[in-house]
Every structure is written in C-alpha cells, then in structure tokens.
Design goal:
Elements: E1 2-6, E2 9-14, E3 17-21, H1 28-45, E4 49-53, H2 62-77, E5 81-85, H3 89-98, E6 106-108, H4 111-117
Parallel strand pairs: 3-4, 4-5, 5-6
Antiparallel strand pairs: 1-2, 2-3
Helix pairs in contact: 1-2
InterPro entries: Bact_StressResp_Reg, STAS_dom, STAS_dom_sf
Pfam family, one: STAS
Protein name: RsbT antagonist protein RsbS
C-alpha cells in the first residue's frame, strides 16, 4: 500500500484503486491542489478506480460540489471509475436545496460498500488470526 499526501489530504493506493477523502477544512487553494494531485496519481499509478470518502464532510457548498463533479469527469477521462462514499444526510439535503446534482457521480452508503463496488474485496482471514501456525 502506497501513501502520498497532497495539501493535507492523504491519497492511499490499494492495488489499482486510490482511496482518499475530503474534510471540511479544505480551502479553495488546497482543493485545487488536491484535484491536481489526484489526477496525477490516477495517471501515474494507472488506477482503475478512486474512492472519495466524504463521511467527515459536515457541509457542502457549490464549490466543493463542482469540484467533485470535475474530479469525477477528469478521472473518467483518464479511465478510472470514481465512487463518492459516506455522504451524510445533511450534505444530501443541502445539495438538493441548492439544486445541485452530481451528474455522473456514483455514490455508496459507506467506504466499505464503495470499495467493494470498485472490485476490491477483503479475503477471508486465516483461522486463529495473523501469524497463527496450525501445525504447532
């Protein structure tokens, strides 16, 4: 697993999937730097999918919504599928009240479902936990 941090936002690589998240503290300059870094990583890592976890995002404005749409469009142009996971009800309500539609943005209830939708599945754990030797 490879980790790289851009503007305070970590981008993790898990196989051919990149995992990242958005926080409330992301200002416009940091958001643009994050978008640039994410698109660079999609290309350089040849990522087939991107999971953006927004479960820590307590509110959303038109700039962040537009950034998500643009990020998704850029990722698709680069051949990656993007899933936005963990949207809080208040964020969904705000989007509807603002009349903002995240056209083309796939969503998942939580990060686990989002990563599964991207084709990543955790294998079964060995009996007895890690490091257990059944021959002893």
């Amino acid at each position: 697993m490879r980790t790289q941090q851009s503007g305070g936002v970590p981008i993790l690589r898990l196989g051919d999937v990149l995992i990242t998240g958005l926080l409330n503290e992301l200002d416009d300059k940091a958001a643009l730097a994050f978008t640039d870094e994410l698109t660079e990583r999609i290309a350089s890592d040849r990522a087939s999918g991107v999971l953006i976890d927004i479960s820590r995002l307590e509110m959303i404005d038109s700039f962040v919504a537009r950034m998500l749409m643009e990020m998704t469009s850029m990722a698709r142009l680069l051949g990656a599928r993007v899933i936005v996971a963990g949207m809080r009800p208040a964020v969904a309500i705000t989007l509807v009240e603002l009349g903002l539609e995240l056209d083309g943005v796939e969503t998942a209830l939580n990060a686990e479902r989002g990563i599964a939708a991207l084709g990543w599945h955790q294998g079964p754990r060995p009996p007895g936990g890690a490091g257990h030797d059944p021959t002893r």
